[in-house]
Structures are given as structure tokens and as C-alpha cells.
Specification:
Layout lengths: L5 E9 L4 E9 L1 H7 L2 H4 L6 E2 L5 E3 L13 H16 L10 E5 L1 H4 L3 H18 L7 H4 E3 L2 H16 L18 E5 L3 E6 L3 H6 L5 E6 L5 E12 L3 H16 L6 E4 L7 E3 L14 E4 L3 H8 L31 E5 H7 L12 H12 L3 H7 L5 H25 L18 H10 L5 E3 L2 E2 L2 E2 L2 H12 L13 E4 L10 E2 L12 H22 L2 H16 L3 H18 L7 H14 L4 H9 L10 E2 L16 E2 L9 E2 L15 E3 L5 E3 L3 H4 L3 H4 L16 H4 L2
Parallel strand pairs: 1-5, 5-6, 7-14, 11-13, 14-15
Antiparallel strand pairs: 1-2, 2-4, 3-21, 7-8, 8-10, 9-10, 9-18, 12-13, 16-17, 18-19, 20-22, 23-24
Helix pairs in contact: 3-5, 7-16, 10-14, 11-14, 12-14, 17-18, 19-20
Protein name: Nucleoside phosphatase family-domain-containing protein
Family: Belongs to the GDA1/CD39 NTPase family.
GO biological process, one term: CTP metabolic process
């Protein structure tokens, strides 16, 4: 099969506060299917990413609404340069690039959205060689429903709900997890309703189709919706407007704000002030968290008319949620607001009573006391502390009053009748995913981001369907009858195989392996292992080029022959011969002659291949180098399939050694017909090819 054939993908998440680059890679489906176990064949491709492959810049792309021409050089160039530092040069033309804008862009007028997406496409096509065949598919402002669906894919992919449904039975035949996301401008929900609700609200669901490594389709029916304006920043603006309507009079210059710490004074947009200018309206914190909860509740829009029952927030229809089986993970602000200034950085289960107590304790303090506990030199820390009380009240209201998540620690949740193995249940309990809600940032070291879901969809689309039956393409659309609904959005990928590996591709594999090993050494932080791996990396770097390997072998071979000449002594020659035999495999004298006289481009060492199931973390926090659902230190293995034994085309005289490698046993006459004439008079038994043992046998 040759060396590793990596596929790569780039996604730019253009959010309201900034644009974030994500780079992903996965094995080419042909190679992945060749190496996969039967269990892996029934699952999705394994997507790999690393912390150092991501990069975020501020502000968001929506700030270029009136200056679209500047978005390329002033905003995208830095991100593209970072991506090109990660992706091998020879892979760029086969690497798809996506820019998908979310809530920030949705707030812009349609004319500005169109101008920006056209300019982004033009810039990428003119200044990069990334694969960009369809601008409408690759560069777009995605709907909130689509963002939620991608997040649902990412969560279930990382949790294992797709590949091992039998280990995630929540009861009533349900095995997937719900997804909650909250950003600065919008909030999303995505989940698979229980069977009763799915049948009742079939027209409200999305048909999602993936494809497993074995080519079999995997279908899911998912409900997803978005609430624009329900992100924390937009909600805060709405809240301040409500305070103005409540308190403003001709003589008012200060608005009491129970959602800010005591004695904190800010402008209406949240900028702290010591002495406001005469006539300026300011907010003054009162630190009353219970009152804050009451004043943020009306923002949920629970009093809005519901035209299609049931509804949750703002009069928008959502099928009834069965919290016996629907267990949700919350990302973005759900994570930051529950694990930020209020303490807990670990993946502990969300407990309403504990969380609310911590919030009250924090928000009842005056601002001076809070400032003494945060690093005021870091503007982000100070800003988070300033906004923490409002965000906490908003999250509590959205979760429990809006969506209806039971208050764990206060409200009783009926048993769900779990049907899962004891080990699977215990594992899930440790992560907190048997609770109705759990905030997460990473799962098994991978960030839970909707961008991962989009790339899973793309990678699944590269897998050939079973028996070439393409009636069930990868993508999503309305839950209509038939394999391909009219509004079906295709994954945008095909199963076109990559070309055969060449020297450049092999260099990519060596460089990739070296990079992975270095990251592992950093993660392990063991001095002995680090020293060994660094030495190994030096060797890999030196021999990553084919011509370097051949040149080195030729020089060593000549030196050995000189040291074997009569009168020169043979001790050093035997030592060097042993070293080269271990490193390159042991060729006979006939092989040496063929090497000297042949075309150097025919000869190449095998590839160093690292196991895909043994990725690792390159940081102590576990969010660095990552691969879904696996961990541990990869062990490189030497693939000798392209070694010197492969120089002779005939395999008639082959035999299997202990390690399953083919060992040549042809006679001297068969290898080189005239060898008997060239070696006439030589009687050494050691030089006879029929007496040679394989290098593996000799080392026993």
C-alpha cells in the first residue's frame, strides 16, 4: 500500500468575535480501509487535529461589511499563512478550504454578506492553491440550524454514539446525545427526539446521512433550530435596553444593575469608568443575583405566541424533549460560564444547586474585592469577572426556564431504564454524560467544535459506497421520502483516489512521523525518552530524502569493501557491516553490484508509519495534539516492504521469515547468470548465496 496517504481539510470559523482557523487530517479511505479492523470498518473515518494547528484572530469578519476589499490582506492572510505552515506543500491542491460565517455575518444586510463572501472566494482562488471548486458550497453564511447540526455530529462522533451505539443506550432505543451551543450572537439546539416525538414531528426533522468505512450508509433524524439574538453579547444589549426603559428619566444619570458586582461602574457598552462625564448615562452594580435572574427572565420571550406547539424560547417550535433519554452537552459559553471565574476547570457534572451557590457567593462581593482576586493586568480576566454574573443568570434562565433542563441537585429525574454494559455506564458516569446536561470543552483531548462535524461529513463523503450504489449520498436535507430530498446539501467530496506515493509523499510521511514523535516527547516530559526521540528525529531528518539514503548506503558499502580487502583486516568491516545490515537489511554481494549499476530512483527505504490509534496530547491540559476516541504514545514501525529485497522482480524463490517478511532464496546462478564465471575459483562457503540466512534469523 505504500506510505501513509493523508487527506487534509481547512475550515475558517467566521464568528461574531473573530475568525478561527481549524486544520484537520485523516487517512485516505483506501489506506484506512486496508488497515482497519472489522470493528473500525463499521465506524466513521478518524479525524486528527492538534492545538497548534488552530489560530484565532480578532475582530470578526463581519467588521469588514463596508470594506469587503480589505478582508483578504487584512484578515485572511495571517490565517492562510498558518495553514500553509501545517499542510505539506504537495497536499495543498487536494486540500479543501471552507469559510463558514455564523451569527455575526447573519446580522449584516444581505448585500454586505454577498460582497464579503464573493471577496473571500476571489482572494482564496487568486492567492492560494487550495481546492475550491464551488464557492457557493465552500464560502457561505451558514444557517443557525446547520451550525447546530454540525455541532451535533461533532459531539456524537467524539462521544462514540455513532460507532458504538450499543454502549450508549440511554433507554427507549436511544443512543445519541443532544447538542447545545451559545456564542455571542446566537444559541443553537440539536437533538434526536425519542421515537414518539420523532414520528409526531417527522416534518420538523433533518435527514442526516453519513457513510462508514465499509461503505454502508448511516442515517439519523435530527431536530435543530437556532435563536438569533440569544447569544450572551446580544442578550446583554437587550438587557441594558430594558434597564434604560425601566429607569431612565430626564434626571437619571445612573442605572442600578443587579447583574454587575457591587460598586462597579461602567458605560452602557460595558467600559469601566471612574468618573463619568457630565450627562453620560452609566451603570452601577448592585450585586443582587436573585434580582438579576428576575430581570433577565423576560428576555426568554416565553410570553410570545406559539403557533406550532410545543415551543421553548421566543415562540419557536421545538419537539418535546424527553430528558430520560436526551442527554445534552453544552459548548462555548455553556462551558466558559460554568467553568470560568466560578472555579471548576475539570469536566465535573453540572449541578444546579452547587453552581448557583458559587454564583451567589461571587456576585455578592464588591468590585474592589473581586479585582483583588483576578489579574487586572489581563484585560480578558477583568472583563470575564465583570460580565460573569449576567452570563450566569442568562445561562441558568436559558437552561432551566427556557429549555427545561431539570435542576440536578434539586429536582428529581426519573430513572431512564438504561440498557448498557456496566463498564460503559461507569465510563459515561465519570464524564457526566448520563446527566441531562453537561458542559464540555474537549472530549478525549479534542475541542468540541461544529467545524469538526463539517469535516466528518466531508471525510465520510470520500468513502466509496458499497457495491458502487450511490443512491444514498452523504449530506443532509429535509426529512422527505426518497434517498435525496430536493434541498439536500451534499458533503462536497468524492471518492477519487489519491495518486501513488512518490518521493515527496514519502518525505511527508517521514516529516509527519518526526513531528508527531517530537510532540509525544514533549507530552511525556521524560528526559531519557526525550533524548532518545531527539536522536531518532535527527536520523529521520537526515534520511527523509531518498537520495540521501542511497548516497549514505553507497558510501558505507564502499568503505566496507575496502576494509575487507586482503591485508586491511576484517574486524572493522564486520562491525560496519553489522550496523548497515541492521539499519538497511543484509544484501548479498550480488545485491551490492546491482545497486551500483542500477538506477538510483529504483531504490528506496520503507516508510516509518505511526499507528493511528495512538495519538497523544502535546500539552498538560490535554487539548493539544489529538485524535478522536484514542490516546497513548504511538510506536513507530519500520515497513520493509520497499527494502533491498524488493530490488529483484522475481518472487519465485521467496520464503517467509519469522516476522512474515519475504526472504529471497534464489541461487547465485538465477540472480546473475554469469556470476559463476565472475567468481570462478572462489570456494568460500560464507559467500554462497544458498547459505545466507535472513538478517532476522541471524539476529536470533
Amino acid at each position: 500500500m505504500g506510505g501513509k496517504k493523508w487527506r487534509w481539510g481547512v475550515i475558517l470559523d467566521a464568528g461574531s468575535s473573530g475568525t478561527r482557523l481549524h486544520v484537520y487530517r485523516w487517512l485516505d479511505p483506501e489506506r484506512a480501509r486496508h488497515d482497519a479492523s472489522q470493528d473500525e470498518l463499521r465506524g466513521l473515518p478518524k479525524i486528527v487535529t492538534k492545538k497548534k494547528w488552530t489560530k484565532k484572530i480578532r475582530p470578526g469578519i463581519s467588521t469588514f461589511g463596508e470594506t469587503a476589499k480589505e478582508v483578504g490582506p487584512a484578515h485572511l492572510r495571517e490565517l492562510i499563512d498558518h495553514a500553509l505552515d501545517v499542510i505539506p506543500k504537495d497536499k495543498v491542491k487536494d486540500t479543501p478550504i471552507f469559510l463558514m460565517a455564523t451569527a455575526g455575518m447573519r446580522l449584516l444586510p444581505q448585500s454586505q454578506q454577498t460582497a464579503l463572501t464573493h471577496e473571500v472566494c476571489s482572494y482564496l482562488r487568486q492567492n492560494t492553491r487550495f481546492s475550491l471548486p464551488d464557492c457557493d458550497l465552500h464560502i457561505q453564511v451558514i444557517k443557525g440550524e446547520t451550525e447546530g447540526l454540525y455541532g451535533w455530529i461533532a459531539s456524537n462522533y467524539l462521544l462514540g454514539g455513532f460507532d458504538h451505539p450499543e454502549q450508549h443506550q440511554h433507554g427507549k432505543g436511544h443512543h445519541t446525545y443532544g447538542f447545545l451551543d451559545m456564542g455571542g450572537a446566537s444559541a443553537q439546539i440539536a437533538f434526536a427526539p425519542n421515537s414518539t416525538e420523532a414520528q409526531k414531528h417527522a416534518n420538523d426533522l433533518k435527514l442526516l446521512r453519513l457513510r462508514n468505512l465499509n461503505g454502508s450508509p448511516a442515517e439519523h433524524k435530527v431536530f435543530t433550530t437556532t435563536w438569533l439574538g440569544f447569544g450572551v453579547n446580544q442578550a446583554r444589549e437587550s438587557y441594558v435596553e430594558s434597564l434604560q426603559e425601566l429607569y431612565t428619566s430626564k434626571d437619571a444619570v445612573e442605572l442600578p444593575d443587579p447583574c454587575m458586582p457591587k460598586l462597579l461602574r461602567t458605560t452602557l457598552d460595558g467600559t469601566p469608568v471612574q468618573k463619568p462625564k457630565p450627562g453620560d448615562l452609566t451603570l452601577v452594580g448592585t450585586g443582587g443575583f436573585d434580582e438579576c435572574l428576575k430581570k433577565t427572565y423576560p428576555l426568554l420571550g416565553k410570553d410570545k405566541p406559539c403557533e406550532d406547539n410545543p415551543c421553548l424560547l421566543n415562540g419557536q417550535h421545538v419537539p418535546a424533549i424527553d430528558f430520560d433519554v436526551n442527554h445534552f452537552v453544552g459548548v462555548s459559553e455553556y462551558w466558559h460560564t460554568t467553568h470560568g471565574v466560578f472555579g471548576d476547570k475539570g469536566n465535573k457534572a453540572y449541578d444546579f444547586a452547587t453552581y448557583q451557590r458559587r454564583v451567589k457567593d461571587f456576585c455578592s462581593q464588591d468590585w474592589e474585592t473581586i479585582q483583588s482576586k483576578v489579574d487586572v493586568r489581563k484585560a480578558n480576566d477583568a472583563k470575564n469577572a465583570q460580565e460573569a454574573c449576567f452570563k450566569a443568570s442568562w445561562l441558568i434562565n436559558v437552561l432551566h426556564e427556557g429549555i427545561g433542563v431539570p435542576r440536578i441537585g434539586i429536582e428529581h429525574l426519573p430513572a431512564s431504564g438504561l440498557n448498557a454494559s456496566k463498564s460503559a455506564v461507569e465510563s459515561a458516569k465519570q464524564k457526566g454524560f448520563l446527566d441531562p446536561f453537561q458542559a464540555v470543552d474537549t472530549i478525549d483531548g479534542i475541542e468540541v467544535s461544529w467545524t469538526l462535524g463539517r469535516m466528518v461529513l466531508y471525510a465520510a463523503g470520500q468513502i466509496p459506497p458499497q457495491s458502487g450504489d450511490d443512491r444514498y449520498p452523504v449530506g443532509f436535507g429535509s426529512n422527505d421520502a426518497g434517498p435525496t430530498p430536493p434541498d439536500f446539501q451534499f458533503a462536497g467530496s468524492t471518492w477519487r483516489p489519491l495518486g501513488q506515493g512518490n518521493a515527496t509523499a514519502d518525505d511527508d510521511d517521514w516529516d509527519t512521523t518526526a513531528d508527531d514523535l517530537l510532540d509525544k516527547a514533549k507530552a511525556r516530559s521524560t528526559s531519557g525518552l526525550l533524548l532518545f526521540l531527539l536522536m531518532f528525529l535527527i536520523v529521520l531528518y537526515f534520511f527523509r530524502k531518498q537520495d540521501r539514503r542511497i548516497h549514505f548506503y553507497t558510501r558505507v558499502s564502499k568503505l566496507i569493501r575496502k576494509m575487507r580487502r586482503p591485508g586491511k583486516g576484517s574486524g572493522g568491516g564486520r562491525v560496519l557491516s553489522g550496523l548497515t545490515n541492521k539499519f538497511f537489511g543484509r544484501p548479498s554481494a550480488t545485491y551490492e553490484r546491482v545497486l551500483e549499476e542500477g538506477d538510483l530512483n529504483q531504490f528506496e527505504l520503507g516508510d516509518v508509519d505511526s499507528s493511528d490509534d495512538n495519538e497523544y496530547s502535546d500539552s498538560s491540559e490535554g487539548s493539544g495534539s489529538q485524535i478522536g476516541r484514542s490516546s497513548g504514545l504511538a510506536t513507530p514501525k519500520l515497513n520493509l516492504g520497499g527494502g533491498f529485497d524488493a530490488l529483484m522482480p522475481s518472487a519465485a524463490g521467496s520464503a517467509l521469515g519469522r516476522s512474515g517478511l519475504v526472504v529471497r532464496t534464489e541461487s547465485r546462478e538465477r540472480l546473475v547468470p554469469n556470476m559463476q564465471m565472475l567468481g570462478a575459483g572462489r570456494r568460500s562457503r560464507a559467500g554462497s548465496p544458498t547459505r545466507l540466512k535472513s538478517p532476522l534469523t541471524q539476529e536470533q
